[in-house]
C-alpha cells in the first residue's frame, strides 16, 4: 500500500497502540502516556533550519500525523496530511533565568502534565531552548500512541541528519522511512502465518503454572498517573567489571544485568522464581526497522534461581531464557494474557520490567554533539529498570522508574542503593562462586522493608 493509499483511510491500531488507547480511554486526563526526551546540544542552533528539518521529518514519518477515534468495531487511526497540521517549533530563551536548565525543565514538566485528546489534539510537540549562546536543548515530546523507544531514536537521528544538511547547504539525504502501511501489512501477515501459532504454543507451554508476579510494594500495581524516577550512572570501572563478568561467562552484558535484577528480587522477597517483563521492539528485519511507529512488546522472562547454582550457571541460564524469548517476540503480550485467561479480572503476568536501551545515540547537529536526556519512556505500573548503553566509552545509566502511588521517594532511593550495592558485589564475584554466597546488604532499607519481605502481589477483586 503506497503512502497516497492510506490518507483518509481508517487504519487498524497495532497491538501496542490498542493497549495504550484503551488505557487512555479509562482516564482521559491521565498524562502518563506523554513520552519523550530532550537533547542537550553543545553549540549554536539555527531555529529556522531546525523547524524546516522538523517539517520534513513530520512529512516523512506518517506515525507522527496520526489521530485516533472510536470506530464501529473498535479504535482506528487516520493519517492527517502534513499540510493540514497547524504547528510550529517553540523557541524559548531561558538564558537570562537564574538557573536556565531549571527553567527549561520546568517548561517541559508543565507540557508533560498537559492531557492530550487523542482524537483532536496535536500529539507531538517540539521546542528549542536557548540555555546559552553555545548550549541548546531540543525537546521532542509525543503521545505514546505515536512512538515507541525505537521510533524516538529514529526521529532524533533523522532530524539531526536533515538539519545538518540544511545548515551546511548540502542536499538532504534521502529518507529511509517507509510507509506505515508496510508495518501494518507485516503485522497482519504475521497473525495469519504458521509462525503465529508456533509462537503462541511456545508461550503457553513456557508459562504453565506460572507464579504470581512479585511486587516490592506488596500491593496490587495499577496504571500509574505519574512517574517517580531516580537515575544512577555506573562508572567506567563498574561497567567494565560487569562486561568482563559477562564476557568470561560467554554471554553479553544484558543477561548479566537481568540476572542481577532477578537474583536481587529473589533475595529480597524469598520468592523461588521471578517473572520479569522485558520490553522489545519486535522489529525483525530491515523493512520493520525502517518504519516509525508504535509496535513494542513485553516478553515474560521466567527465571527460577536454583539453590546452589554458580554465578556462571545463572548467567548462562538467563542468557538462554532471553534467546528463547526473543525468538518468539512478535507474539503480543495482551494476546498472551488473553490466552491465559488474565484479562477478565485484570491479572498481572509479569513483575518488574527491565528495559535495555541500546540505540545508537552518536548524534550531531551541524557538527555539534547532542546528549540525550529521557524524560519519560511510558508508565511504570510497579517498578522498572531502564538501562541505557551509550557505548563503550561511557558507563551504563540505570533509571529506576516507579509508580509513586506504590513507592515513596525515600523507599525508591533505598531500593536503588541496595540494588547498586548488590550489582557491585555480583560484578566482583568469581564465576564459580555460589549465587547464595553473594551478600545482600539491606542496611539502606528502612526497617519496615527489611523485616517484611514483599509477597507476590495480591489479585485485585
Amino acid at each position: 500500500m503506497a503512502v497516497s493509499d492510506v490518507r483518509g483511510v481508517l487504519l487498524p491500531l497495532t497491538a501496542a497502540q490498542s493497549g495504550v488507547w484503551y488505557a487512555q480511554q479509562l482516564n482521559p486526563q491521565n498524562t502518563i502516556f506523554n513520552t519523550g526526551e530532550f537533547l542537550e546540544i553543545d553549540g549554536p542552533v539555527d531555529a529556522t533550519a531546525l523547524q524546516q528539518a522538523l517539517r520534513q521529518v513530520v512529512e516523512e514519518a506518517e506515525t507522527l500525523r496520526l489521530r485516533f477515534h472510536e470506530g464501529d468495531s473498535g479504535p482506528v487511526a487516520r493519517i492527517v496530511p502534513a499540510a493540514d497540521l497547524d504547528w510550529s517549533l517553540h523557541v524559548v530563551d531561558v538564558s537570562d533565568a537564574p538557573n536556565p536548565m531549571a527553567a527549561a525543565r520546568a517548561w517541559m514538566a508543565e507540557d508533560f502534565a498537559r492531557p492530550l485528546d487523542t482524537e483532536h489534539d496535536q500529539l507531538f510537540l517540539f521546542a528549542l531552548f536557548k540555555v546559552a549562546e553555545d548550549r541548546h536543548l531540543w525537546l521532542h515530546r509525543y503521545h505514546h500512541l505515536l512512538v515507541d523507544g525505537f521510533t524516538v531514536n529514529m526521529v532524533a537521528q533523522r532530524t539531526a541528519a536533515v538539519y545538518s544538511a540544511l545548515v551546511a547547504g548540502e542536499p538532504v539525504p534521502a529518507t529511509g522511512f517507509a510507509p506505515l502501511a508496510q508495518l501494518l501489512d507485516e503485522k497482519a501477515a504475521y497473525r495469519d502465518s504458521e509462525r503465529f501459532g508456533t509462537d503462541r504454543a511456545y508461550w503457553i507451554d513456557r508459562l504453565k503454572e506460572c507464579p504470581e508476579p512479585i511486587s516490592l510494594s506488596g500491593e496490587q500495581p495499577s496504571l500509574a498517573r505519574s512517574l517517580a524516577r531516580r537515575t544512577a550512572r555506573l562508572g567506567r570501572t563498574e561497567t567494565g567489571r560487569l562486561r568482563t563478568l559477562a564476557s568470561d561467562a560467554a554471554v553479553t552484558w544484558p543477561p548479566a544485568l537481568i540476572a542481577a535484577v532477578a537474583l536481587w528480587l529473589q533475595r529480597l522477597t524469598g520468592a523461588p522464581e521471578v517473572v520479569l517483563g522485558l520490553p522489545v521492539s519486535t522489529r525483525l528485519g530491515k523493512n520493520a526497522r525502517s518504519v516509525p511507529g508504535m509496535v513494542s512488546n513485553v516478553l515474560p522472562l521466567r527465571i527460577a534461581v536454583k539453590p546452589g547454582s554458580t554465578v556462571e550457571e545463572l548467567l548462562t541460564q538467563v542468557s538462554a531464557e532471553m534467546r528463547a524469548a526473543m525468538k518468539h517476540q512478535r507474539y503480543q503480550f495482551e494476546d498472551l494474557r488473553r490466552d491465559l485467561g488474565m484479562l477478565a479480572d485484570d491479572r498481572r503476568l509479569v513483575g518488574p520490567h527491565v528495559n535495555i536501551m541500546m540505540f545508537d545515540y552518536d548524534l550531531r547537529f551541524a557538527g555539534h554533539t547532542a546528549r540525550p536526556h529521557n524524560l519519560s519512556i511510558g508508565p511504570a505500573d510497579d517498578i522498572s529498570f531502564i538501562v541505557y548503553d551509550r557505548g563503550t566509552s561511557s558507563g551504563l545509566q540505570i533509571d529506576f522508574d516507579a509508580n509513586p502511588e506504590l513507592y515513596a521517594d525515600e523507599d525508591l532511593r533505598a531500593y536503588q542503593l541496595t540494588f547498586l550495592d548488590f550489582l557491585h558485589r555480583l560484578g566482583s564475584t568469581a564465576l564459580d562462586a555460589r549465587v547464595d554466597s553473594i551478600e545482600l546488604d539491606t542496611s539502606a532499607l528502612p526497617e519496615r522493608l527489611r523485616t517484611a519481605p514483599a509477597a507476590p502481589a495480591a489479585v485485585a477483586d
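The chain is about 35% helix and 20% strand. The chain has two domains: 3-182, 211-451.
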